[in-house]
Amino acid sequence: MNAYCREKGFYKWFETSAKENINIETSIRSLIDEIMKHTDRIKPVERTLIRLEDPVINKDDNKKSGGGCCSEK
């Protein structure tokens, strides 16, 4: 595994078991620590507010289809 990680450029590997709770916290903490070392390389995500248009209810369509909550009687 060490050779494979070096060859593929992986940071590290851990033998883990969720069933036996072996190295779960250690592996996650190690990964987070490594990510935090490189945060200066991460570009900020551009956030865009997307506003969905209000749905259009055509009352005439409801009359044709036999009613519904928005039909006029």
Summarize the structure.
This protein has 73 residues and is mainly alpha-helical.
Features:
mainly alpha, elongated, 73 residues, single chain, 38% helix
Write up what this structure looks like.
This protein is an all-alpha fold. The chain has three helices and no strands. The radius of gyration is 27 Å and the shape is elongated.
Number of helices: 3
Q: Between the first and last Cα atoms, what is the distance in angstroms? A: 73 Å
Task: Profile the largest sheet.
Answer: none
* Low-confidence parts: none
| Mean pLDDT across every amino acid position | 77
> H/E element string?
HHH
Number of strand elements: 0
- Beta fraction of the residues? under 5%
SS-derived structural category: mainly alpha
Helix content: 25-40%
Overall outline:
elongated
